[in-house]
Amino acid sequence: MQTHLAPQYQDSAAGREAEAILRKCVHCGFCTATCPTYQLLGDELDGPRGRIYLIKQVLEGEAPTRKTQMHLDRCLTCRNCESTCPSGVQYGHLVDIGRQIVDEQVPRPASEKAVRWLLKEGLPSPLFAPALKLGQMVRGALPPTLRAKVPLPQSAGRWPSASHARKVLTLAGCVQPALSPNINSATARVLDAAGIECVTAPQAGCCGAVKFHLNDQSGGLGQMRANIDAWWPLLSSDQVEALVINASGCGATIKDYGHLLRDDPAYAEKAALVSAKTRDLSELLPDLVPLLKPRLKSAPQGVVAFHPPCTLQHGQKLRGGVETHLGELGFTVQVARNEAHLCCGSAGTYSVLNPDIAYELRDRKVGHLEALQPEVIVSANIGCITHLQSGTATPVKHWVEVLDEALQA
């Protein structure tokens, strides 16, 4: 795609990166076939190719409008289009650049600003956990749309106390300890059963994705730098084998630290090392299977329906691992027969900002998963788990929780 950047973007790092991405696009339109919002809305501007044209127009000097902003806002950033694209267009990076440039020129209404501020400041805040507890106390009195965002209270279970020679660094996350505390403790128990100890860096916080994708990119980068500082003593000295992430949304972001901080002279090298040492929990499964198989205390029963999050299958390009290796452990794992590649509609804060689209995608996804008649639905990201659970009576868990139950029974 030929581009002619406006003067104000020609010498900027964002402009040069965007131009390089745009030049890879060959207008083929394969991306529209796998774009969830294009599937629902049928509007060219609500597909990747249309959004690429909108960003190109802005970079070439055309003034963006609220309509431009709306179409970019409607993108789930699921990156399904990247998996489909034959030309290797890095759409996710391009839409981050486009959104920031458009938001700098198009003011949002006060109510919209307020909601976005609450999300980016509230979700990573220490106040999120007590606020959630309060919401759970009055959950029955909440309106249905708000009640869907407030899961029932969960217990975490015990954290293993054994020390092992093999150690991995883990991230607690910002919302996961409050929404579903058992995921982190189940992760620690499963790894403990395989002779691996989980350690955490207490100073580490939100991975930065929430702020970054709500166009507070400087705030998000600040959180990334703080995490690197917290992890660096352990990672740089090889006290731990890897940074293991059990929320695929966080993992996709942390694996991108090296790119996002590549121009920061103080952090570029450290960010690249952190990204290189980051592993999704499922990437450990090939080594865990022979260690855990003799320790299973109960035979898995029924169908386990697996929803692979977009941040796992498209963001991290990890496909088939969970199904294959849980199958080796005796689980009957199936993915949806239709549209397993499509987003469930959670997409970070998307389900709050674009609820109509998010819930239509959720119901579509739940229908495909329930067609498998599963005993349980599992996923690999806290956002997907919470969003899907709001649309079904079938239990929705992290896959590591189901594995933990088979080990602890």
List the helices and strands and how they pair.
Elements: H1 7-10, H2 13-22, H3 36-41, H4 48-59, H5 66-73, H6 80-84, H7 91-105, H8 110-122, H9 128-137, H10 144-147, E1 166-170, H11 176-179, H12 182-193, E2 196-200, H13 209-213, H14 217-236, E3 243-245, H15 248-254, H16 257-260, H17 268-276, E4 278-280, H18 285-292, E5 303-306, H19 310-315, H20 321-328, E6 332-335, H21 350-353, H22 355-370, E7 376-379, H23 382-389, E8 396-398, H24 399-408
Parallel strand pairs: 1-2, 1-3, 3-4, 5-6, 5-7, 7-8
Features:
alpha/beta, 409 residues, 8 strands
Would you tell me the overall average pLDDT? Answer: 94
**Total strands:** 8
Lateral strand order in the biggest sheet: 2-1-3-4
Calculate Rg over CA atoms: 21 Å
Q: DSSP helix count?
A: 24
Largest sheet: 4 strands, parallel
pLDDT below 50 for ≥5 consecutive residues: which ranges?
none
Q: What class, by secondary structure content?
A: alpha/beta
Taken as a percent bin, the fraction of beta residues is 5-15%
Shape: globular
Distance between the termini: 57 Å
**Helix content range:** 40-55%
